[in-house]
Amino acid sequence: MTDKNCQKSAGNDMILSGREIEQHLGDNIKIDPFKPENLNPNSYNLTLHPDIMTYEEVVLDMRKENRIRRMTIPESGMVLSPNRLYLARTVEHTETHNLIPMIEGRSSIGRLGLFVHITAGFGDVGFKGFWTLEMFAVQPVRIYPNVSICQIFYHQICGDIEEYVSDKYQNNTDIQPSLLYKELNPEGVSTDPQLTLGFKK
Hints:
By secondary structure, the protein is mainly β. The protein has a single domain (18-180), classed as Deoxyuridine 5'-Triphosphate Nucleotidohydrolase, Chain A (Distorted Sandwich), CATH 2.70.40.10. The chain has helices spanning 4-9, 18-24, 107-110, 181-184; strands spanning 29-32, 44-55, 68-72, 78-80, 86-96, 99-105, 114-115, 128-137, 141-143, 148-156. The longest helix is centred in the first third of the chain and has 7 residues, at 18-24. The chain starts with a helix and ends in a 17-residue tail after the last helix.
């Protein structure tokens, strides 16, 4: 049955203002570290952690744990190549209750042809952890650690709330490659090897 209050508010999807985000800090919203200068009119800028990963498989397999290569973005920057997926994470650890957290790229980042997520900017009520970024460059672009890379914003939610529970991504402490294989192949992961890409070290 649809909640009457939800019916009344249909079409009025509310996004929190920057001041409202600040008022919810320590309660429904936790951002660590929090810097007031990163607060926007209706969002908060999240920054890029120096750690970054790429997959080493020629073909990514949904049913297998795909191998990854970990790198560190130096202070002098790192050039991302087109047509390759890079996994990174935010410096900030966030926790959200009674609101829907979402991330989007900053317009200045988008104007460099850099995507910071691929269909995965939608968060869940109750999510706790760092945000993994699925970065994809349209053309070669140099990135730097600790730059403001994306923005988090918060939607109000209507109806009874069941908070996010996951043995894959909840309470993560690092970049999270796809763990879809745990759903599709719960009995175990095949050990059949795939060819690896010849990255230069």
